[in-house]
Design goal:
disordered C terminus, 6 domains, five-stranded mixed beta barrel, 38% strand, OB fold (Dihydrolipoamide Acetyltransferase, E2P), mainly beta, single chain
């Protein structure tokens, strides 16, 4: 057969021909293709061929030109090999066969794959896997089988797909999985994707969702705390809809719910230790064991400290001790307390501050109804607005006190009947005696006094007898003449003389009369006396007058 090819004279350029190696030189290999002249093939085109080429070997070469300037045929073994590979690939495409290759490098839009005979093919990024791949470099150097989805021999263009094969495999696997999948079944899977709300698990051609709430009986802030893509997991099928092919999975359901026996382990009064896992405005959550958390409310952190936020006491990650206050296993709730580990400072308050004890402290807060005075760190007493002054009409505590003022007060009462924190009642006016104990004696009925007008209203005028002691001159007691509007007669700040006409110690009211004082003065002058404001009443004047008369005159 080879002898026949040597006699051929119709060898065409651009064709693959058979030849015999005649000689192997340093830079080239001499090949006889049966033409009138031999040809040369560069020695580098035989690099990597094992065994090495030697005289007498039969090889196939590509005839580029029948004759060059030296009268020799221009031959190429590489081009012959490449054309043979392209023919093989073309035949494989026609038979719908798979092509095997190694991903060699990353190129624009995808990856370059080296297939048969070193031929380069293109693998688009969208055809690498079932889902979009972010890190294409992870595939470099790996060997896979591919489906040829585009082939152009003239342009030397081959486009491959791995995704098509994976989809086919997945469809076959999916059918098998759907046949045997049942609710309650424990199955193996691979973590395919992670989201904020859960993890998608590949069960074999079909994905199931493992929601974050079904991962653990304990707290999981993000699925990445428990899984990474590619992890092998064993999960339980919670729900399965064969029509929609939706599968809900659970991991924690494989183990027993720790809350079932929690009431036995965490009875009220038990001292426990746990790790702070979360802080809220209202308190701190403590993990006592996996799946069991308790809440230390902000009010249960300290007996006396005013804790505005739990971060002032604890931080996430801290290991703390607490006391179980209450448990409701049906609601998965445990109430914990930290202050209960310390002595209750309020228990000794009644013996430490019996009623009548004088205390001193700073005004911590001011309310419409009174002021709060700190008598010890974290322990306040309330001075009600009615216990600030015996005589002043206090509309708001801020008229007398400001935050930070240091004041003295008397302990009036300590009420321990409600809750852990007793109510301490304080009084400031009780530091001095009640002036109304002496007012009836200092201002008896009939006494004429000097007073200063404080306020004038439609029905009369309020006058001040001494600091904090006021009385009322009714409009009818201003003058013997009819007074329509007291404001036309009296002005604030005006000094007047008036006679005490009534006094009610229980109601703390004093009634005065200007016209009565005027009559008393006129009557005293008529009798030769001048009524003053030295404390003498009109009766005193008459008795003094009678003492100066004879017995017969008196009769």
């Amino acid at each position: 057969m080879f002898e026949e090819s040597l006699k051929r004279e119709d060898i065409k350029e651009g064709a693959i021909v058979k030849g015999r190696v005649i000689a192997v030189a340093k830079d080239y290999v001499v090949v006889d293709i049966g033409y009138k002249s031999e040809g040369q093939v560069p020695i580098e085109e035989f690099a990597g061929i094992d065994p090495a080429v030697k005289p007498g070997d039969e090889i196939e070469v590509f005839l580029e030109s029948r004759e060059n300037e030296n009268g020799l045929c221009v031959l190429s073994k590489e081009k012959a090999d490449r054309l043979k590979v392209w023919d093989e690939i073309s035949e494989a495409c026609e038979r719908d066969e798979l092509i095997e290759g190694v991903i060699s490098q990353r190129v624009k839009g995808g990856l370059s794959v080296t297939i048969r005979g070193g031929v380069k093919a293109f693998l688009p990024g969208s055809q690498v896997d079932l889902r979009p791949v972010r890190n294409l470099d992870a595939f470099i150097g790996k060997n896979y089988k591919f489906k040829v989805i585009k082939f152009n021999k003239k342009r030397g263009n081959i486009v491959l797909s791995r995704r098509v094969l994976l989809e086919k495999e997945r469809a076959e696997l999916k059918g098998q999985t759907l046949e045997k999948l049942k609710e309650g079944q424990v199955v193996d899977g691979i973590v395919k994707n992670l989201t904020e709300y859960g993890a998608f698990i590949d069960l074999g051609g079909i994905d199931g969702l493992l929601h974050i709430t079904d991962m653990s009986w304990g707290r999981v802030n993000h699925p990445s705390e428990m899984f990474q893509v590619g992890d092998h997991v064993r999960v339980k099928v919670l729900k399965f809809n064969s029509e929609t092919e939706r599968v809900s999975l659970g991991l924690k359901q494989i183990s027993e719910d720790p809350w079932k026996s929690a009431a036995e382990r965490y009875t009220p009064g038990t001292v426990v230790k746990g790790r702070v896992v979360s802080l809220k405005d209202y308190g701190a959550f403590i993990e006592l064991e996996q799946g069991i958390e308790g809440l230390v409310h902000i009010s249960e952190m300290s007996w006396t400290r005013r804790v505005k936020h739990p971060s002032k006491v604890v931080a996430v990650g801290d290991v703390v001790e607490a006391v179980v206050l209450d448990i409701d296993a049906s609601q998965n709730r445990i109430s914990l307390g930290m202050k209960q580990l310390e002595p209750n400072p309020y228990e000794a308050l009644t013996s430490k501050y019996p009623p009548g004890t004088v205390v001193r402290g700073k005004v911590r807060n001011i309310a419409d109804f009174g002021i709060f005075v700190e008598i010890e760190e974290g322990i306040d007493g309330l001075v009600h607005i009615s216990d600030m002054s015996w005589t002043q009409r206090v509309k708001h505590p801020s008229e007398l006190y400001q935050k930070g003022d240091e004041v003295e007060a008397v302990v009036l009462n300590i009420d321990t009947t409600e809750g852990d924190k007793p109510k301490i009642s304080l009084g400031i006016k009780q530091l001095i005696g009640d002036p109304w104990d002496r007012i009836p004696f200092d201002y008896p009925v009939g006494k004429i006094v000097s007073a200063k007008v404080q306020k004038v209203l439609d029905f009369g005028a309020f006058v001040e007898l001494e600091k904090g002691i006021e009385g009322l001159i009714h409009v009818s007691e201003i003058s013997d003449s009819r007074v329509e509007d007291p404001r036309e007669v009296l002005k604030p700040g005006q000094d007047v003389k008036a006679e005490i006409i009534s006094i009610d110690a229980a109601e703390r009211k004093i009634g005065l009369s200007m016209k009565a004082a005027l009559r008393s003065e006129e009557l005293a002058e008529a009798q030769g006396y001048t009524a003053g404001t030295s404390g003498a009443t009109l009766g005193d004047v008459f008795r003094s007058k009678l003492k100066g008369l004879s017995k017969n005159d008196q009769e």
